[in-house]
Design goal:
With 855 residues, the protein is α+β, with helices and mostly antiparallel strands. It has 4 domains: 4-298, Immunoglobulin-like, CATH 2.60.40; 314-439, Neutral Protease, domain 2, CATH 1.10.390; 445-536, Sandwich (Immunoglobulin-like); 726-855, Alpha Horseshoe (Zincin-like fold), CATH 1.25.50.10. The protein has an 8-stranded mixed sheet, with no helix packed on it. A 5-stranded mixed sheet has the order 17-18-19-21-20, with helices on one face. The longest helix has 20 residues, at 335-354. Bound molecules: (3S)-3-amino-4-(1H-indol-3-yl)butanoic acid and zinc ion. The site of (3S)-3-amino-4-(1H-indol-3-yl)butanoic acid (HT7) has 15 residues, from strand 20 and helix 2. Residues 101-184 form the Aminopeptidase N-like N-terminal domain. Its EC number is 3.4.11.2.
């Protein structure tokens, strides 16, 4: 497949100020008539090129005249029309078969609905159009459909008119006054019920809000509606951004390639990020709903009002919007816990990506298939880069920078450079060297060594940075790395203030005076930079910080490092002392000042995957054995505490408050250790929690704990869960996911059997992710020494590629990490990648991921 390069960007040859679309909707055969006003952009004689993917033009008109077939031609799916004048009216007619669209891009059918997904390049599957984000148009959309089957007809913007038509059909017209790129176009037709509400904006306008779902799901929409109203208020308060249309609609669909989509005024969501009630949704699901509703809403400014010039600028909208949604969620709950969760996700997904064959900068230089670049790097590292700017500027100057950015680029398609320039000017800061974060891939490593001079009563902190080589970038320049740092006096447990040290050189020293005794280093507090820090801190230093650091993230980090050190020692065959870990967990559990949610985060052992990331060559079996043994020991040694916490945190009635969520998190952690201890009554206690719980958070946690073992309670609980929830797709996903995640010796066979289960389908991306996506994240099972886990995922990729290449391609990266494993596993992983690549008719999506993964 062709490689698209950032350096080749050229402004569009033709602009499309206005487009009118007329949809005659039917799942089997939909007709789309498009009328485009086109204007020549600049002095050139190039023809009009309208992208198309799988479209056949049934009629082409220019200024009302039907063209002969010789007057246009198709080139790689695109419609090419030579034009003599500078502005024309172009009309095209195409036919689509939404019910056969298994790629879920363009116009498709999902659970009786018709809906669209156009980002990144789905609009070209609906009509001929310059499918690029820098062509902004005003849309007028008419839809007609059978009224009984599709009583609700929604599109972007404001509703203009509705009419009944002959033969039981009806029509609706929607106009969107804001020029937008075609990736933000959307329509939905179906039999939907509405949770209707309203919001009064800061200038006093009333906006009609609607969350549209299947009638039976209406009771599960309250949390999403609250999240929407909270988001609208937050964006006004924190960024001064007001909503601009008179209506804001959200529709939930069951089949969706991603989490959600920010189409102007008509967000379309994967139903898993809208529907929540205590019976079926965990606290993580509730938080997911809140975060994704906020994310898509915030795109109205960071993405829609100011959009991207080209897809290389994707992080301009996604990194900034993730940063905004992270801060919103922190404001809605706990800043400390949210930061820990976000860093855990960053490390699990982005650090792995950054150290593998698919590493790319947050502003990539090239791609084959843009859908492959909706990555943790673009989203999560992109957010970290914005976070660093916010930290360096401080709240007020960051706001001045964002105000300037929004005001200067409103209605435009902008670049990452435009954002940085606005921050630089509005925030009055030089971001020259900082721009390297946009250019260089790879997670920087920082080595921090503290040395104390008792005579001079000073300490010297030496910081050394290296940025690893990544594909296409063998040599790196030093980055500008902001590191929040404090030096603790071990005698008082206090520090003299938090300083922001800027590491800009390959090696730099900082001297601090007034230290009679050697202080303890707390660095990268709050995870101020997305880097890997290595220090010469002792286990005693880490234990001290785990009890005294006043920065919650640094406190958590110290505890994690303490655990990592013990486990890595054990994995290497040493008899590393675990006393400090057990003491630290005991201290944390018994500190009454701590938030239970924070305690639950802190006492949890690093994941098997995270431990693998700390090793040159990952040994999945040794990691599993060491972690399992430590877990058992922690469980046994602190047994009275686990039992006490498990009993004390049982709530009388369900609440979704932060306090209630924190209590459930801690209760589940206690149950986990209690069962891991091997206590005889462990499975019965877990089964008791499973049976008695009035909420999915406790029920699923108990099921997950049981799934790791082989007790009779395991099968009983899985059967009960299945029978209770088999009719509810989102909840049944949890049944598949729990088994795919299980740290069970037969996990591979179990996943293989589940792939043949009558409720498994490749047609639904949530189901695929629940089984194969979860399994590929289960390090011990997926990396089974026989290679059978690799074969299972490769089989799925091959079969799924024929239906839904985008979702198939997302399963490839776990196979690409072969360099991190022993020769035997590496050869088995490579063999599967080669088998995938040998498939005839393989998609561009999977070809790009698999071929890059072999390099
Ligand atoms: N901006 C949206 C991206 C998206 C997407 C990308 C590729 C294929 C399907 C997709 N659905 C949505 C989601 C977001 O970041 O808000
Ligand atoms: Zn987004």
């Amino acid at each position: 497949p062709a490689v698209i390069r950032r350096a080749d960007y050229r402004a569009p040859d033709w602009l499309i100020p206005d487009i009118a679309l007329d949809f005659d909707l039917d799942p089997a055969l939909t007709r789309v008539e498009a009328t485009l006003s086109v204007t020549r952009n600049g002095d050139h004689d190039r023809p009009l090129r309208l992208d198309g993917d799988g479209l056949v033009p049934l009629a082409v008109k220019v200024d009302g005249r039907t063209l002969e077939e010789a007057e246009w031609h198709l080139e790689a799916g695109a419609l090419i029309i030579p034009l003599s004048g500078d502005s024309h009216r172009i009309e095209t007619l195409v036919e689509l078969a939404p019910q056969s669209n298994s790629k879920l891009m363009g116009l498709y059918a999902s659970g009786g609905l018709l809906c669209t997904q156009c980002e990144a390049e789905g609009f070209r599957r609906i009509t001929f159009f310059p499918d690029r984000p820098d062509v902004l148009s005003r849309y007028s959309v008419r839809m007609s459909a059978d009224k009984a089957r599709f009583p609700i007809l929604l599109a972007n913007g404001d509703p203009i008119e509705q009419a009944d038509l002959p033969d039981g059909r009806h029509s609706a017209l929607w106009n969107d006054p804001f020029p937008k790129p075609c990736y933000l176009f959307a329509l939905v037709a179906g039999d939907l019920a509405c949770n209707a509400d309203s919001f009064v904006t800061m200038s006093g306008r009333e906006v009609q809000l609607g969350i549209w779902v299947k009638e039976a799901d209406l009771p599960r929409t309250a949390h999403a509606m609250k999240a929407l109203k909270d988001s609208m208020a937050w964006d006004e308060r924190v960024y001064g951004r007001e909503y601009d249309l008179d209506v804001f609609n959200i529709v939930a669909v069951a089949d969706f390639n991603f989490g959600a989509m920010e189409n102007k005024g008509l967000n379309i969501f994967n139903s898993r990020y809208i529907l929540a009630d205590p019976e079926t949704a965990t606290d993580i699901d509730y938080d997911g709903v809140e975060g994704v509703v906020a994310h898509e809403y915030f795109h109205n400014w960071s993405g829609n009002r100011v959009t991207c010039r080209d897809w290389f600028q994707l992080s301009l909208k996604e990194g900034f919007t993730v940063f905004r949604d992270q801060n919103f969620s922190a404001d809605m709950g706990s800043h400390a816990v949210k930061r820990i969760e976000d860093v855990r996700i960053l490390r699990a997904a982005q650090f792995q990506e950054d150290s593998g064959p698919l590493a790319h900068p947050i502003r990539p230089e090239s791609y084959m298939e843009i859908s492959n670049f909706y990555t943790a790097t673009i989203y999560n590292k992109g957010a970290e880069v914005i976070r660093m700017m916010a930290l360096m500027l401080g709240a007020e100057r960051f706001r001045a920078g964002s105000d300037l950015y929004f005001d200067r680029h409103d209605g435009e398609a902008a670049t990452c450079e435009d954002f940085v320039a606005a921050m630089e000017e509005g925030g009055q800061i030089d971001l020259g060297q900082f721009r390297r974060w946009y250019e260089q891939a790879g997670t920087p490593h920082v080595r921090a060594l503290l040395s104390h001079d008792p005579v001079a009563q000073s300490v010297e902190l030496t910081l050394e940075q290296t940025v690893p080589a990544t594909p296409g970038q063998p040599d790196k320049q030093p980055m500008a790395i902001p590191l929040r740092t404090a030096l603790f006096d071990p005698a008082t447990g206090q520090h003299h203030g938090d300083e922001l040290l800027m590491l800009t050189e390959p090696k730099q020293s900082f001297t601090f005076t007034g230290f009679a005794a050697a202080p303890v280093l707390s660095i990268n507090r709050g995870f101020s930079a997305p880097v890997i820090v290595e220090t010469n801190r002792s286990q005693a230093d880490l234990a001290f910080l785990s009890a005294h650091d006043d920065d919650p993230f640094a406190r958590y980090e110290a505890m994690q490092q303490l655990m990592v050190n013990v486990l890595i020692g054990r994995i290497a065959g040493q008899d590393t002392d675990d006393g400090a870990v057990i003491d630290a967990i005991r201290n944390t559990l018994t500190d009454p000042a701590l938030d239970p949610a924070f305690v639950a985060e802190t006492i949890r052992l690093p994941s098997e995957a995270y431990l693998g990331d700390q090793m040159k060559i990952v040994d999945p079996d040794a990691i599993h054995a060491a972690r399992d043994a430590l877990q058992t020991k922690i469980g046994a040694e602190l047994m009275p505490l686990w039992r006490d916490i498990h009993a004390k945190t049982k709530a009388n009635a369900f609440s979704i408050s932060s306090a209630a969520k924190g209590a459930r998190k801690l209760r589940n952690a206690a149950l986990h250790y209690l069962v891991a201890s091997g206590a005889q009554d462990g499975p019965a206690i877990a089964f008791g929690q499973f049976s008695e719980a009035d909420n999915m958070t406790e029920r699923q946690a108990a099921l997950g704990t049981l799934a790791n073992g082989s007790s009779p309670e395991r099968e009983a609980a899985l059967d009960i869960f299945y029978n209770r929830y088999s009719a509810d797709a989102l909840t049944l996903d949890k049944w598949f996911q729990t088994q795919a995640f299980a740290l069970h010796p037969d996990a591979v066979e179990q996943v293989q059997a589940l792939g043949q289960h009558k409720d498994f389908t490749l047609a639904n991306p949530n189901r695929v992710r629940s089984l194969y996506g979860a399994f590929a994240g289960n390090q011990w099972a997926f990396h089974h020494g026989s290679g059978k886990g690799y074969a299972l995922v490769a089989d799925c990729i091959i079969a799924l590629d024929k239906l839904n290449p985008q979702t198939a391609a997302r399963l490839v990266p776990p196979l690409g990490r072969w360099k991190r494993f022993d020769e035997g596993r590496a050869a088995l992983m490579r063999a599967q990648l080669q088998r995938i690549l040998a498939q005839p008719g393989l998609s561009k999506d999977v070809t790009e991921q698999a071929s890059k993964s072999l390099e």
